[in-house]
Amino acid sequence: MFTIDPRSRQPIYEQLKEQIIRYVSLGVLQPLDRMPSVRILARELGINPNTVVKTYQELEDEGILITEPKKGFFVSDHDVHAILCLRQKEEFRKAVIQCQETGISEEEALKIVKEVYEGKQGSRC
Questions:
Q1: 74-108 residue pLDDT tens
Q2: Which of 49, 63, 75, 93, by CA, is between 20 and 30 Å from 83?
Q3: Which residues pair with 72 in a beta bridge?
Q4: Global model pTM greater than 0.70
Q5: Nearest CA to 13 among 39, 45, 44, 40?
Q6: pLDDT beyond 70 at 72
Q7: What are the DSSP calls for 51-111, one per residue?
Q8: Angle 80-101/106-118 helices, nearest 10 degrees?
């Protein structure tokens, strides 16, 4: 289900975290679905179990996973979609700030947003 690219510059725990978030947002992982155990997932991916623990703990801190003692990690039964929407809005805000800082006008930024929503590639800088 999960894959890791050891040649990627992105840390392994971030790769795993992004995949879990994606699967939750797509509905592949449903509320209260049990996550693979730390040991099993680490063995399947060929990574250190501490990396899986770090990923799971960060997702728990963000409200996406929950822990049940002696049972493991589960997808939260809270409104995960709302949590993910808030997270994406914050990421979008950061991107807009970066656009401002690099001199991209509001008009150009809105044009890019419109192109994305219309499925067009748009021009690159």
A1: 999 888 778 888 888 998 999 999 999 999 999 99
A2: 49
A3: 68
A4: yes
A5: 45
A6: yes
A7: HHHHHHHHHHHTTSEEEETTTEEEE-SS-HHHHHHHHHHHHHHHHHHHHHHTT--HHHHHH
A8: 140
